[in-house]
Amino acid sequence: MLHSIILGAVQGLCEFLPVSSSGHLAIFQIFMGFSENLVAFDILLHFATLLDILNILTDWFSGWVSANKRRSGWSYGWAVIIASLVTAIIGLTLKSTVEKASESLIIVGAGELFTALILLLVPQFSKSRKNSSLMITAIAVGFAQGVAVMPGISRSGMSIAMGLFMGLGISEAFRFSFLISIPAILGATLLECLKFIKGGEAAFLPEGWIFGAVTAFILGLLSLKFMKGLVDAGKWAYFGLYCLIIGSIAVLMGAGLI
Predict the structure, then answer these.
(1) In 78-234, at which residue ranges do the beta strands (DSSP E only) sit?
(2) Three-class SS state of 48
(3) Cβ 75 vs Cβ 223: under 8 Å
């Protein structure tokens, strides 16, 4: 139960920060000695951080009812769908690779180092805006989010950085990154639920998993608010340095050098 709560806290705090919550979960699971495949538990913790925000897509759904009164959420809804499809294709392709990579400190650490590089380059992305259309941006951001299924690579960091590079403003890039996280996590949750119904090993949940989910839910709300403030303030370098340190330690420990 204590381990589940700890992992829930890690997930909740890291979910919306550009430091890779999946990477941190993998590192903590390795140090805690979990030998089972905990992909289902990881996804459950991701899902728990999103339970109270599904109403963000209300504008898109209402657009089907009243075509003459479609709001900005209508076009954003389609952009989210396109980005999600791109993410799904890449994510499903890399699924088996991700499960194996999550067990290696070296690979997870390398992912954190890659995240550090992206975060440190974010200011340059902001200066090199391409001013692309929303749909082209959706494809690019969806691709970035798909690549981020690899442990150690931050989903929010990759998607926000790509959004900035494609021409979105800081607040808009954050909002779009947040929106496309919903179908990605819901889709992954659905797949694992289907495996759970069939009784597959990939659906293993540790004792006390409900406490981990509740912890992730509460801390996820706090993490989201904290992240929004830092994104608006452009404090990317701090996260980049953090990922650089964590990634370096993980790689060195995985190689047996420390």
Answers:
(1) none
(2) helix
(3) no
